[in-house]
Specification:
single chain, mainly alpha, 71% helix
Length: 138
């Protein structure tokens, strides 16, 4: 990661040096201001995209998903709650979960409320993020 940051800094320094060189050589005056600004903006957008790609961590799958059973036990999640959490991650609505699991929508709401309480979150997205961070769901 340090290598990428150093490369980014060098690229920025080179871009500044290039801009100074253009200014000293009066090449910037050969173009209209709008074209010059567009070229500079395009260069920095490209540099930003490159840095974003390099600095964004990638999740490397290291084999099949292994559920963190220790975290499930420490949180006190029941098998049904883990199943509900998986359904949340799939984007199912409460009614869809109820139909698929053969339980009432009110029971689904109860399970979801318990999952939120045990994960200490308030929303579905927060629950999914925390569950993925703890390796409870793939």
């Amino acid at each position: 990661m340090a290598r990428t940051i150093i490369l980014y800094a060098v690229a920025l320094a080179l871009a500044v040096a290039l801009l100074n060189w253009l200014e000293y050589r009066y090449l910037a005056r050969a173009f209209t201001l709008e074209i010059y600004v567009a070229l500079v903006a395009a260069a920095f957008v490209g540099l930003g995209i490159w840095a974003g790609i390099k600095l964004t961590p990638r999740r490397v799958p290291d084999g099949p998903f292994l559920r963190n059973e220790a975290a499930i036990r420490s949180l006190g999640l029941s098998p049904r709650e883990v199943e509900i959490l998986g359904a949340l991650a799939l984007g199912e609505s409460n009614k869809e979960m109820a139909r698929r699991l053969g339980i009432s929508p009110n029971t689904v709401k109860t399970h979801i409320a318990r999952v939120y309480e045990k994960l200490e979150v308030q929303r579905r997205v927060q629950a999914i993020e925390k569950a993925r961070m703890l390796a409870l769901i793939p």
